[in-house]
Amino acid sequence: MTLRRTVLACGAALALGGATVAGCGADTEPQAPTAEATPAPAPAPADTTPSAQAPAAPKLKGPLAFHVRHRTQLRTKPGGRVVATLGTRTEFKSPRILAVAGRKPGWVMVRTSVRKHHVGWLPVKAGALFSQPRTLVIDLSERQLTVFHRGKATDTYKVAIGTAATPTPRGKFAVTDRLTVKPGTPYGCCILALTAHQPKIAQGWGGGDRVAIHATPDTSVIGKRVSHGCVRASNKALHRLMRQVRLGTPVTIHA
After folding, report:
1. Secondary element (H or E) of residue 83
2. What is the pTM of this model?
3. Are residues 162 and 225 both part of a single domain?
4. Residue-wise pLDDT tens digits, 217-228
5. How far apart are CA 178 and CA 100, in angstroms?
6. Whole-angstrom distance between the N-terminal and C-terminal Cα of the chain?
7. Does residue 147 sit in the same domain as residue 69?
8. At 126, which CATH number?
9. 218 located within any domain
């Protein structure tokens, strides 16, 4: 599955066919075995005694993600003004799996890449909630990316960040796509696209304003302020992140 062109504020635009969606199937919430995979046993006689109760649904532990399974409308608040229509796939053809920022009965607040609406509300009936095992935290002062698994730091990587004129935006974001890249581009092996946008586009830059975490073949820039806002790490670091990080993983960027 190829992409025509990325729209990332990373320093160069990808050529036709320069990236492919990576490992999408592993990002959806856990599924029960299908009837084809595991034949269902004959149903047991129903227990009609008053004490018989259905087992309680497992309680989800945060952080949470929301897998959009049906085309739906993003709203400013539950039942509020519609600001966008979201399909089941992103612009890069990944499953649309969004980080959850809040919940109300029948509604879920999600982090999106919609311009001017980085958070919005979706009806719960449009998809499914599930737990995320990891979060990413990027410290701009230390120029460091840390991976947390269930609240415990497991991996730390040195990174390059945006210049003073085109700084890496701060805030709470999420991973929208995992993309592998053909050799010979400035993106190294792979890209984790984020919901973040770069508000300070450099004059003459035509590559778009989406921010990402991506690899670089030039490891001499690691630890420096060199990008249009994207976060750069080594190929080795991105290969590992691609194996660890699911779509919808929360990303916090702070000074």
Report:
1. strand 82-86
2. 0.82
3. yes
4. 999 999 999 999
5. 18
6. 37
7. no
8. 2.30.30.40
9. yes
Residue among 233, 231, 230, 206 at smallest CA distance from 219: 233
Answer with the residue of higher pLDDT: 229 or 201: 229
Residue type for position 205: W
Asked if 221 and 160 touch (Cβ cutoff 8 Å), the reply is yes
**Domain range spanning residue 81?**
64-131
Distance CA 225, CA 255 (A): 13
Count of structural domains, the chain: 2
Closest CA to 136 of 168, 106, 174: 174
Residue 94 and residue 126 in one domain: yes
Cis peptide before 217 (omega within 30 of 0): no
Q: Do the domain assignments include residue 16? A: no
Measured distance CA(196)–CA(114) in Å, rounded: 9
- What CATH number is associated with residue 207? 2.40.440.10
Q: Tokens for 132, please give them.
A: 């995320």
Q: Is 205 within the bounds of a domain?
A: yes
Q: Smallest Cα–Cα separation from 242: which of 196, 190, 195, 194?
A: 190
Residue after which a domain boundary falls, among 87, 108, 131: 131
pLDDT (tens digit per residue) in 39-92? 334 344 444 444 445 445 568 988 999 999 999 999 999 999 999 999 999 999
Instruction: Looking at the structure, tell me whether residues 231 and 123 fall in a common domain.
Output: no
Q: Are 235 and 39 in contact (CB under 8 A)?
A: no
- How far CA 227 is from CA of 8, 24, 185, 196, 222, in Å, comes to 11, 27, 15, 15, 11
Residue with tokens 């989800």: 60
Residue 55 is classified by DSSP as P
- Lookup result for tokens 């649309």: 96
Query: What backbone torsions phi and psi does residue 134 show, to the nearest 5 degrees?
Result: -130, 160
